[in-house]
Design brief:
single chain, 9 strands, alpha/beta, 18% strand, 225 residues, 8 helices, globular, two-stranded antiparallel ribbon, seven-stranded mixed beta sheet
């Protein structure tokens, strides 16, 4: 936990200037102070490997420390919220030094069931991966990207629906826009300092117990599109 907090502070300090400017628009964070402290699942579209999560870490910590749609005053990083987790592919977070460090900020590392090393595969979900996600939800907030890729042409995977069926979390839709224009997809490089980008939080959702996996998956696809 000490390492996790330290890494969030360091990454936050390095990237604070990137997000604390007029080009970054934040909407809907007032709800973050009203939701439970655990069993909350954030579902989001996905545009970059690292900056999507870094932005959410900034916004979450600023919001729980009294900011509303703002990252002003970096002091919110002094006491970062420690029970924030994000689901990430094991192969992505082990590729280089930067993702390995970022993984200590709260990653739940899973093995993809449908792709590995750029090739299509078909394997069962590892039980330990699913168990770790449920444990994280029991402790706090979990961020997931239901497509499992930055390629928006790919379908939403059913894994998120299985999580919702098992844990019945409060679900918060997140919409990010413009990240792919501002940041390089698989590094921390900024490729355009003039473009606007944004993050928006939607109203909390609860799924019905009797909904099928297929129905939940279809609904998630509509939400993140």
């Amino acid at each position: 936990m000490i390492i996790k907090r330290a890494i969030i502070r360091i990454i936050g300090a390095i990237t604070h200037r990137t997000f604390n400017n007029k080009r970054f628009n934040i909407q809907g964070t007032s709800l973050l102070s009203e939701i439970p402290n655990d069993n909350v699942l954030f579902i989001s579209n996905h545009q970059t490997y690292f900056y999507d999560v870094i932005a959410m870490l900034h916004v979450f910590n600023a919001s729980v420390n009294g900011r509303r749609d703002s990252l002003k005053n970096i002091l919110y990083l002094l006491n970062p919220k420690s029970n924030i987790y994000f689901i990430a592919a094991l192969e992505t977070m082990k590729t280089s030094f930067i993702p390995k460090i970022l993984s200590y900020a709260g990653s739940i590392l899973i093995k993809r069931t449908w792709r590995e090393a750029g090739k299509k595969i078909n394997r069962s979900i590892r039980s330990e991966d699913f168990d770790n996600i449920i444990k994280a939800l029991n402790d706090g907030w979990v961020i997931t990207f239901p497509r499992g890729t930055t390629d928006n042409s790919k379908p939403v995977r059913s894994g998120t629906a299985h999580i919702i069926k098992a844990a019945n979390p409060l679900v918060i839709p997140v919409r990010i826009d413009g990240f792919g224009d501002v940041f390089e997809k698989n590094s921390l490089k900024i490729i355009n300092k003039n473009r606007h980008f944004s993050i928006k939080f939607g109203n909390p959702l609860k799924f019905h117990d009797n909904q099928s996996i297929e129905s939940i998956t279809s609904q998630i696809e509509k939400i993140i599109d």
